[in-house]
Amino acid sequence: MLLDTIKQRRSIRNFQNQPIERDKIYLCLEAARLAPSACNTQPWRFVIVDDKELKDKLCSEAFSGIYSMCSFAKTASVIVVVISEKQKFLTKVGGAIRGTQFYLIDIGIACEHFILQATELGLGTCWIGWFDENKVKKVLAVPKEKKVISLIAVGYYQDSHPFSEKNRKSLNEIVSFNRY
Predict the structure, then answer these.
(1) Is the dihedral angle over the CA atoms 61, 28, 103, 174 positive or is it negative?
(2) pTM of the model
(3) Per DSSP, what are the bridge partners of residue 148?
């Protein structure tokens, strides 16, 4: 049941030193590929970094200095680099009128699809937004005009996965029907 997978998902910051089977990564990518997007723009590209030497270099660069609080990602077997691609004209105009960057919402949905599939496969993930984008671009030869939106650390859990209840607001605090 999907709700069970959602309840199990956690941000994992300690991973086993164990490679991830490529077929599992492909299943996660397929889940992301199927995500909806405004005007079917699909404004995402995923760079999978699973070569240990390159991953170590990427992490050293991405998580140095003021970004060092995310250096836990070095223990992950895979780093997924999420890059925004060109938006369709209509999506861009509609976003400007509404004051909403739809491509970021679309990428967020695709990333969550990836993460939920990873959770179902027994993989831990951590969505990372705090990193040195310029250094990531340099290490991976990402074109200058592209935007690196986020990184996702992926790996097998180091310890048994804690399935304690998440600290979330109750439905009564966040839901109303028919009026605010």
Answers:
(1) negative
(2) 0.91
(3) 83
Q: Identity (one letter) of the amino acid at 134?
A: N
Question: What residue spans define the domains of the chain?
Answer: 11-163
Q: What is the spatial distance between Cα 92 and Cα 28, in angstroms, rounded to a whole number?
A: 27
The helix/strand/coil state of 4 is helix
pLDDT tens for residues 125-139? Answer: 999 999 999 999 999
Rounded mean pLDDT, 97-107: 85
Q: Residues 6 or more apart from 175 whose CB is under 8 A from it?
A: none
Question: Of 3.40.109.10, 3.40.50.150, 1.10.10.410, 3.50.50.60, which CATH number belongs to 11-163?
Answer: 3.40.109.10
Nearby residues of 95 by Cβ (< 8 Å), 6 or more positions away: 38, 87, 101, 102, 103
Report the side by side order of strands in the sheet with 124-128.
Answer: 44-49, 78-84, 147-155, 124-128
Nearest to 54 by CA among 28, 78, 18, 24: 78
